[in-house]
Amino acid sequence: MNDAPLHIVLSFADWLSLFGHYMLLSLLSVGGAISTSSEMHRYLVVEQHWLTQSQFNDAIAIAQAAPGPNVLFVALMGWNVGLNAGSYTAAVAGVAVTMLGILIPSTTLTYTAARWGHRNRDMLGVRAFKQGMAPLVVGLMVSVGLILGGANHTWATDWPLWLISVVAGLIIWRTRIHLLWLLAAGALIGWFLPT
Amino acid sequence: MHNEYGPGFDKVNVSFLSVCNYNDRMMTDAPRARPSSPLDLFLSFTLLALQGFGGVLAVIQRELVERKRWLTQEEFVEDFAVAQIMPGPNVVNLALMIGDRYYGLRGAMAALSGMLCVPLLLVLALAVLHAHYAHHPGVAGALRGMAAVSAGMLAATGIKLASALVKHPLPLWISVPLALLCVVSVVLLKLPLAYTLLILGSIGVSLTYRRLKGKQP
After folding, report:
1. Which residues in chain A have their CB less than 8 angstroms from residue B115's CB?
2. Higher pLDDT among residues A151 and B77, named by residue
3. Could you tell me which chain B residue has the CA closest to the CA of A182?
4. Residues B112 and B27 reside in one and the same domain
5. In A149, B6, B46, B145, which residue has its Cα 20 to 30 A from A168's Cα atom?
6. Model pTM score
7. Backbone phi, then psi, for B90, in 5-degree steps?
8. Is residue B136 part of a domain?
9. Are residues B123 and B178 in the same domain?
10. Same domain flag for B20 and B72
């Protein structure tokens, strides 16, 4: 927010470079696109100066706060690069270039691999892989919950949020209530919590 | 009476897992729910994505396994393992795989665009509004409240998924410590996910391989 607004000019070669860079990152994004965000920062903010530091931070924060997959932070970066280039048309182009770049290689690879795995599902190696990863899947799910909940680290003021997490977890564990009710309740309580 | 995994959960297990074992469940004729059309896939994944504040994955588990019953708990865990190990966002990969299973490439594209299209428009709208409302204390508080609910949901989903370990080829005294090691490595040691998956994953996979091989006739 304190950064001076950027005014940039993007040539066709720049758009191509942006696209190519995201295609490359797509193949490296094991564990999700967010794992390559430090490289995006280096490229967009430090090297090319296409995005300000606060635009970069806000893109990640907004995508985390919004519903939907977190990969949408990539779209927000493309949007802001386009806006910095001066128009909403460029912003839409930025979304298209970055999102297609980050998605096409990884989805093609996953689609092919998943099909191969499904065709060969009786092969011992395939079964061992899918089932052998199960303990990690359980561990990862718990981990993401702990990390997300752990973002509230000031115990003295954040204990109501921890309480919300624990109660929500218990309700989800024991009932089949629709999540939207719980999210709405969380939003309502959060609205009135002192910050 | 509730069993240890909660009331809804045992129904899923009994109705599907008793008729479908690991080897033949993809080919089984047991009655099970499925999406009625690619449009159904698109709409279902749109609704899923819109409920996922920080944790679309847990929403997929809850909606597709527990409520719609398109997948069994074990199938979900296996598909997720593949979706996680491949590059790309795991929920996007998972949508692709689930869509493909029912309607091929068409289904994969329907699920994928459901996961991305409406949330994309929403996130862009939020970015435009962001400057005006981000610092309103009520809005910031509401977002934190929703994130807290999501955190609880993710942890609870992990605990529920642990039931898949009971039927797992590995005995519990191996699989449970592996899951705990994964939590320690990711949450406490903060190791890069790729290392965790590589090291603990290869232990899990090779031990499972030996067990499965030992059971073969």
Report:
1. 68-69
2. B77
3. B149
4. yes
5. B46
6. 0.76
7. -60, -35
8. yes
9. no
10. yes
pLDDT tens sequence across B145-165: 887 888 888 788 888 888 878
Residues in chain A: 195
What confidence tens digit (pLDDT) does each residue in B1-54 have? Answer: 333 333 333 333 333 333 333 334 444 445 678 999 999 999 999 999 998 876
Q: Of B43, B42, B41, B49, give the one whose Cα is nearest residue B70.
A: B41
Residue A136 to residue B77, Cβ atoms within 8 A: no
Q: Nearest residue of A to residue B178 by CA position?
A: A135
Instruction: For residues B36 and B126, state if they share a domain.
Output: yes
Chain A residues touching B176 at Cβ < 8 A: 135
Q: How far is B95 from chain A (nearest CA, A)?
A: 10
CB contact under 8 Å between A118 and B158, yes or no, is no
Cα A49 to chain center, whole Å?
22
- Angstrom distance (rounded) from CA B127 to CA B122: 9
Is 0.90 exceeded by the ipTM? no
Alpha-carbon gap, residue A174 to B2, rounded angstroms: 8
Using the beta-carbon criterion (under 8 Å), do B151 and A149 form an inter-chain contact? yes
B1 within some domain: no
Distance CA A139, CA B155 (A): 9
Question: In the numeric block, which tokens belong to residue A58?
Answer: 């806000």
Other beta carbons within 10 Å of A126? 17
Domain range enclosing B118: 7-165
**Domain tally, chain B:** 2
